[in-house]
User: Fold this.
Amino acid sequence: MHSLTAGFAKQCRQAVEIARAAPLPKTPATPNHVVITGLGGSAAGGDLLSALYADQGRVPCLVNRDYTMPNFVGPESLVFATSYSGNTEETLSAYADAKKRGANIIVVSSGGEITARAKADGFPVVTVPGGQPPRTAMGYMFMPLVVASEQLGLIPRQDYDDAFSALESVAQECGFDSVEESNPAKQLAQVMTGKFATLYGEGSWQFAITQRWRGQINENAKEMVLTHVFPELCHNEILGWEGSDKQGVEKWVSVLLAGGSEPERIKKRIDITCQLIGDATAFHTVTAHGKGTLAKMLSLAHFGDWLSLYLAALAGRDPGQMIAIDRLKEELSRIN
Assistant:
């Protein structure tokens, strides 16, 4: 898991090259909307793409995590069907539904059944390297979506050099060889260990990263966390802290995920919130690297990758084990 995490920047570079060489459509009509359908690690890149569209896109973009597509999907829809293994049953079902509805489909996968179906159906396929846990392959599953969106004119050209530089900076700062005294991911893991953590995004795209952190901490460290976002949490969760000391949790800790350029109004709101609930939970902030939104998203997500490994190490858990998920898939396979 360490080597796969350490190679994330290289993976993202390779994924861009693969996508640029893939036979993607160049000049179709602009779709009414974009839907990424996938589950787990294969859908994590969809969350980032949706956030990137919200920041820069020409059309709406959302993520679908179900066996079927939303009712509005049809001939004017662009669907990215993403399954790293190519055999995710929910994504295969959603692919069939999207095809039935006449949607334009682009598949991103390492192979499997969905690749075979897409090629037989005449849909473009971006084939990425396989053989690793899907949660470690977000570069392969996300960057082709960005490149395809660029080629279709749905988002502006991205600054990949900025993104790759930011990723390399995080890897150097947070990697195994960086000692704890100068390693913010190791330091935060020490703070979070033995506590119930809440992850707060300081904006909408930052919230997408809290979702990625949650998945990585769930799967690698086998621990629970909660997520929420400013300013929405100021209208509900801020009151929940009043009774948090009676819920059987010995210690809480809250982590703010920041982009570094939040509006002053949001900054002030966050400061006041921290003051109001600071007696119930301790606050720690992690700020993204890079200049553009793509760099900031990837760098903040990569910090969470390292953090999840250190949480697993401190808890004595194997980040590579997937016992419950494997057993669930085994039981479901017997149904058919």
